Amino acid sequence: MRFASCTGEIEISGIRKCFEGAGPDAINLGLGQPDFDTPNHIKEAAIESIYEGFTGYTPNCGIPELRTALAEKFQLENNITCTPDEIMVTSGASEGLFLAISATVDKGDEVLIGDPGFLSYNALTKLAGGKAMGVPLNDHLTLSAETLNDNITDKTKAIVLNSPANPTGAVQTRDEIKAIVELADENDLTIISDEVYEHFIYEGEHVSPGQFSDNVITINGVSKTYAMTGWRVGYLVAKGCALEQLLKIHQYVQACACSISQKAAYRAITGPQECVAQMKDEFKKRRDILVTRLREMDLDLNVPQGAFYLFPRVGNGDEIASSLAKAGVIVVPGSAFGLNGKDHIRISYAASQQKLEEALRRMKGIL
Ligand SMILES: Cc1ncc(COP(=O)(O)O)c(C=O)c1O
Q1: Residue span of the structural domain in which 112 resides
Q2: Ligand 1 geometric centre to CA of 174 (Å)
């Protein structure tokens, strides 16, 4: 069989490597999903929708009540004013990223991406025929307008922002975001803003770049916020005529997001939000335990303000991850997230405090 050359440009995710050498009793701190179950009131909405026979295709952009609820959410939580017509429900934020990058990037176009950064940005850019340009992060592990500016060429088309970030947990400040939006507008660049961890911020604030400019595609989803990774519902805002461009791709690759999951997502967004606060409190407790204990081990560590990852500098991240796997703790080598991540490992704290305690015990002597 002969394949398109773009498939040769990308590899199976490096996260897979972290499982190598791990035994059956290994504690998995490599996961990028909450370890909580989807709250019952959300599950019930899905069950009801099945019994009501809501099992067919939905409108391409999503069910109207969900798009209306999302427009209200964007106004209230993100200060983004948009109409339901500027919102699309997607199959996870992953599809949103695919649509945003595919609709923006031409062959040879450059996309500025924080290095280290979430794997998909790089791969999706290459699939679109573009060049993923890794931009180094500053000391606080955020992206600055100055460094981005240094990397702009006449081929640059877009900037990807991700705050709070995977894998660093870093949160961009309001001033940083404003400066980046200004830079993007001056250079006619699209900002693709991945905000899937917006509700897990322990210090600082979440600032959506989409409130300052219409040249922003804002991407989010229910996976992380409501522990719904398997339900595959994401959503995005694309202003003006941008949504139509994304829709042209979405209608052929996906048609619509899962009907049942959309009903569940509607209940999630419009229902009680205590479940989110509870998850956030628990994540913060775990982060604090890990930070204290890892610092006692003299680890070089920025305190992440958001998401549910720690990204300590450990020396050779690949070697340490492999030693940890043999000792029964799975983490992801930082190299999986870009060249600049190679001295780090990513530790996810989407695992119970009891598991984290045991993992810390096993880590002693290796870190
Ligand atoms: C930064 C970031 N964006 C997007 C996603 C994908 O989310 P979804 O499950 O909504 O496709 C992930 C998942 O790990 C992520 O970490």
Answers
A1: 56-270
A2: 22
